Amino acid sequence: MGAVYFYHLTRQPLEHTLPVLLEKALQAGWSVEVRGRDSAMIEQLDQDLWKSPEDAFLPHAISDGVIDASTPIILGQAPASPKRECIILVGGAEVTPDEIADAQRVCVLFDGHDNDAVSLARQHWKYYTDAGCVAQYWSEESGRWAKKAESGATNQSKS
């Protein structure tokens, strides 16, 4: 069973944090799906990933159904086909508890300066943990990522 990690972005913006997580996922040998709710955001992330990181290449494409199976990182608004080991959610996108169970890792990135995004992340945390999913909450408020809460199979308390 996979786990869902919530990343509360307060110091670095999405366009900085996303490439770091994508590199780590590829280093783990995972194929990745970046799922958003807004096509304009997906297109902007596609453009940003062509520019970053400067010293590396992140092989990616916007989902079109043709090259999806051969591309390590797919960006889109719907679940990728074939399924990916890592799903990164941006802009309030959602997954089902079954998708979390099937993945190695699900990452929820949300803007800590957007009250609506924080509220939605809290709702998702409750929904996923109530469904029995293992969840971790990570904050960068100190300047370094630190795990602040955990809930699920290894820790039955609701955080």
Task: Note down, in words, how this protein is organized.
By secondary structure, this protein is α/β, with parallel strands linked by helices. The protein has a single domain, classed as 3-Layer(aba) Sandwich (Rossmann fold). It is 31% helix and 26% strand. The chain is built from four helices and eight strands. The protein has helices spanning 14-27, 39-51, 97-102, 115-130; strands at residues 3-9, 32-35, 60-62, 73-76, 86-89, 105-111, 134-139, 146-151. The chain has an eight-stranded mixed sheet, sandwiched between helices. The longest helix is centred in the last third of the chain and has 16 residues, at 115-130. The protein starts with a strand and ends in an 8-residue tail after the last strand.
